[in-house]
Specification:
This protein is mainly alpha-helical. The protein contains 9 helices and no strands. Its main location: membrane.
């Protein structure tokens, strides 16, 4: 696939679409900007520790299959088989479905100033766009993994990193040059410190 395709594939797996979905979920659970930033920092630390573990596993167990290979390495073949079946039937399809639904929602909301749709047409459009995205991705992977899918992955990764950079730069611009610090002056006001809410916030951040 080449160095750029492989790198973009790894980046795409590490930085998923959840980065654009979870901020709303975290704020909804903890109910404050300050505590949501703390939850984000905790999620980042946990993710860093997890990635270090996977680096150790990947360099020690040089077998294809990732989690499946690692579990098989310790002779837990039944657990590995069950893990892969759950992933194929539930985990991976559910994750892709959420991403497709989010794509449709963002497109409809982004075009709302130009094309205002009322319910149920807006919901139908969101689902139709998500289905079209899934069909397109499946076609790309079936048609040619090296020629089209790899290039699409590079474009998608660049777009994802560019969007994140734009959001970060815009945030610092508003904070430093425009002095919009109202969200940080009372950042922990009305925070919800309930264990359940914090756990759900962490779960959303780690998705």
């Amino acid at each position: 696939m080449g160095i750029f395709s492989c790198t973009s594939y790894v980046i795409g797996n590490i930085i998923g679409s959840g980065i654009f979905i979870t901020p709303t979920s975290i704020v909804a659970e903890v109910n404050s900007v300050g505590l949501s930033l703390v939850v984000w920092a905790a999620c980042g630390l946990i993710s860093l520790l997890g990635s270090i573990v996977y680096i150790e596993l990947g360099t020690s167990i040089i077998e294809p299959g990732c989690d499946f290979a690692y579990v098989c390495f310790v002779k837990w073949h039944a657990v590995a088989f069950s893990f892969m079946w759950v992933g194929v039937i539930i985990t991976f399809p559910a994750s892709v479905a959420v991403q497709a639904q989010t794509f449709g929602q963002y497109v409809v909301e982004g075009l709302a100033p130009l094309f205002q749709l009322d319910e149920p047409y807006a919901e139908i459009t969101r689902k139709a766009l998500g289905i079209l995205l899934l069909v397109g991705i499946v076609w790309l992977n079936f048609y040619s993994l090296n020629e089209f899918a790899a290039k699409f992955q590079i474009i998608a990764t660049v777009a994802k990193l560019g969007s994140m950079a734009l959001i970060i730069v815009a945030g610092f611009y508003l904070l430093i040059f425009k002095g919009q610090t109202s969200n940080l002056e009372n950042g922990f006001k009305n925070s919800n410190y309930g264990v359940g809410h914090i756990v759900l916030g962490l779960y959303a951040g780690l998705w």
